[in-house]
Design brief:
Strand 3 and strand 4 form a beta hairpin. By secondary structure, this protein is an alpha+beta fold. The protein is built from 9 helices and 16 strands. The chain starts with a helix and ends with a strand. It is 32% helix and 28% strand.
Length: 491
């Protein structure tokens, strides 16, 4: 009995404490004590802890950020995808409308032409009906002729050409293409030019001024004379050059005089050079100095004597007075004995460098429209490598109005200054375009590391000068025949 009483008392005590916790009438009660008695789900909702509050706030923030990101994504999709697609659709519709409008215009023009032709035919038929002398067969033939004429005038055709020349014509400028031909029967209208018979032309009476000389003559003006002798020793195979004197040199200093000296080369070898002494303040120096060049007798025909006259300047670069180049030593002097030679000193500002020569042939076949350039050989090329040799090859460029259309090149010859090629380079050029093209021949030095260097160039064609133009004209004058010449290389 005592056990049941104790249980009832305990239950009453628990109820009492629970009611007190719910009513919160006693401030001395602790939350932990109340939690032990508040076990029902309805009681647990009365108290909300701080961790549960932070978790709910974080969930709300995450949901808001997700909605914002979705809105941004939808805005970007609308800007990047929807607007360009709509613009493309609008532009395509505009293009279709424009094309339809153009077709309508063409159809209207064709209809106008057809109505004009029909009206013309009706008028011709009416005229023929009014004249009883014209038979019906003649009227029908006349009608067919007029119909053919109107069709021919509406058509524009381009003359057919060889398929080999299509690539060449594609590179030509627009004004050089063959235009559509007019097959109309009407002759071209020629504008009448007023005649100038009896009129005075002032340009015929203008006198050329003395100062306006030919620039080539100015470039070839002399700067005094130089006297020297040549003699060849056949036993020792040595050429002796003796510089005697110079006369009437130009003044290079402010005091009205010069300090001249002479440099001597035996080209194409520029490594071996000699120089005279400097003579102070004189325009007529006397040198009287001899210099010896060891050279075999068989090489004398290909050697050139180069004399450069300079003015010595102590505090700046020496000024060049002029130069003398003696190309054929056998024609200039009898080398077996010493003979005095006088030469004019040609004006020059820098020493002319001998870059060598190239021999090639040109042949043109007008019926096939084929130009063949055969590179034969080069001689006395300038040494571009440290070893004193070069690795030359030849590059040929087809030019038209300053633009390069095609380029081709030969093989590379290693370690030589006198290469032999015998290689043919072919270009397909129509006969009507031969007056508009030219060839640029470049002799290059091949380098394994770095850029290939240009040794020298030459040009042939109608627009070329000197030997290049003469060689081209000779090729055109003698078709189907190879024409070969030596050409000097220039920078």
């Amino acid at each position: 009995m005592s056990g049941t009483k104790d249980d009832s008392r305990c239950q009453k005590a628990v109820r009492l404490v629970t009611e007190l916790c719910r009513k919160k009438s006693l401030p001395s009660l602790d939350l932990d004590t109340c939690r032990e008695f508040l076990l029902l789900p309805s009681d647990q909702s009365l108290i909300i802890s701080k961790p549960e509050l932070s978790v709910s706030l974080l969930a709300v923030i995450v949901i808001v950020c997700g909605l914002a990101l979705v809105a941004v994504f939808l805005f970007l999709f609308w800007k990047l995808c929807w607007v360009p697609c709509r613009n493309k659709a609008i532009s395509s519709n505009l293009a279709i409308l424009q094309s339809e409008a153009g077709c309508n215009k063409e159809n209207m023009a064709d209809k106008l032409k057809d109505t004009g032709a029909i009206s013309f035919l009706e008028a011709a038929v009416k005229i023929s009906h009014t004249s009883p002398d014209i038979p019906a067969e003649v009227q029908m033939s006349m009608k067919d002729h007029i119909m053919r004429r109107t069709r021919i005038q509406r058509q524009t055709t381009e003359p057919a050409s060889s398929t080999r020349h299509i690539s060449f014509k594609r590179h030509l400028p627009r004004q050089m293409h063959v235009s559509s031909m007019d097959y109309g029967m009407d002759p071209p209208v020629v504008a009448e030019q007023p005649t100038s018979i009896g009129r005075i032309k002032p340009e015929l009476y203008k006198q050329k001024s003395i100062d306006s000389e030919d620039p080539k003559k100015e470039a070839a003006k002399t700067c005094g004379k130089i006297n020297f002798t040549l003699k060849y020793d056949y036993e020792n195979e040595t050429l002796t050059v003796r510089i005697l004197r110079a006369f009437d040199l130009p003044a290079k200093d402010f005091c009205g005089s010069s300090d001249p000296y002479v440099k001597i080369y035996l080209l194409p070898d520029r490594k071996r050079k000699f120089q005279t002494r400097v003579h102070r303040k004189t325009l007529n120096p006397t040198f009287d100095e001899s210099f010896h060049f060891p050279v075999p007798h068989e090489e004398l025909a290909s050697r050139k004597l180069h004399l450069s006259v300079f003015d010595f300047d102590r505090f700046s670069r020496h000024d060049m007075i002029g130069e003398v180049i003696l190309e054929n030593l056998f024609e200039a002097s009898d080398l077996s004995r010493e003979m005095s030679i006088w030469k004019d000193i040609q004006y020059a500002t820098t020493e002319s460098v001998d870059l060598g020569e190239i021999m090639f042939s040109l042949c043109y076949l007008p019926t096939a429209g084929r130009l063949t350039l055969t590179v034969i050989k080069c001689r006395n090329l300038k040494a571009m490598d440290i070893t004193g040799y070069s690795d030359p090859y030849v590059k040929v460029s087809l030019l038209c109005d300053g633009r390069r259309l095609k380029k081709k090149k030969t093989t590379i010859k290693k370690n030589t200054l006198n290469p032999t090629y015998n290689e043919a380079i072919i270009f397909d050029i129509p006969p009507e375009n031969m007056d508009q093209v030219s060839l640029l021949i470049s002799v290059m030095d091949y380098d394994r590391v770095g850029h290939n260097e240009i040794i020298g160039v030459c040009r042939v064609g109608i627009s070329a000068e000197g030997l290049g133009r003469d060689h081209w004209n000779e090729m055109l004058a003698y078709p189907r025949k190879p024409i070969a010449h030596w050409h000097p290389l220039v920078e």
